[in-house]
Amino acid sequence: MSFKRRKPKLDTTSKRVQYELAAQLNKMCKVLDKRYQINYGGCCYLAYCIAELLEKDGFNFSLVVFDDRYDMSKFTELSELPETMMHYAIVFDDDSVNGDLINCDDDDFDYSHQSFKVSAKDIIKYYNNNPWNSQYSTACNGLIKLFIECTYHEFADSIH
């Protein structure tokens, strides 16, 4: 007989859970941006880390991509993007930007944006196949992932 404690899953359809989780992750994103400059070349990797956790718990999410050089509405697939774009964020719910956004500021909406229904695997493949701003050190990726996982699991433990 195993005595391993099974953690109940988060209520992935609860708007309150989504809002509170987004708020916790956004606080962490601000700290990570100040310390590691994730929004200068690491925001796509950050989106992957968050997407991976959301996927494991069964949340519905999309990747929102922002850019000031292209009309983003012309793209229907992440793989169609001609180069790396200006910013990447995660949104809960559906493929619109009406849900709770993670690692996104209001001024990001000054730019063209498009949401893509993708998996964490799609995001990391895209990340690995594109060049990124060298201002962000990819040597920090492991640490970034650890911070995000700790914040996520701390939130999940507190909600039960």
Q: What is the general shape?
A: globular
Major beta-sheet overview: 4 strands, antiparallel
Number of strands: 4
Q: What order do the helices and strands follow?
A: HHEEEEHH
Please give a handful of descriptors for the protein shown:
160 residues, alpha+beta, four-stranded antiparallel beta sheet, 4 helices, 4 strands, globular, disordered N terminus
Tell me what you see in this structure.
This protein has 160 residues and is of the alpha+beta class. Helices cover 41% and strands 12% of the residues. The protein has 4 helices and 4 strands, in the order H-H-E-E-E-E-H-H. It has helices at residues 15-36, 43-57, 120-128, 141-159, and strands at residues 61-67, 87-92, 101-102, 112-116. The protein has a 4-stranded antiparallel sheet with strand order 3-2-1-4. A hairpin with an 8-residue loop joins strand 2 and strand 3 (101-102). Helix 1 (15-36) runs antiparallel to helix 4 and helix 2 runs antiparallel to helix 3. The two termini are 24 Å apart. The model is unreliable at 1-6 (pLDDT under 50).
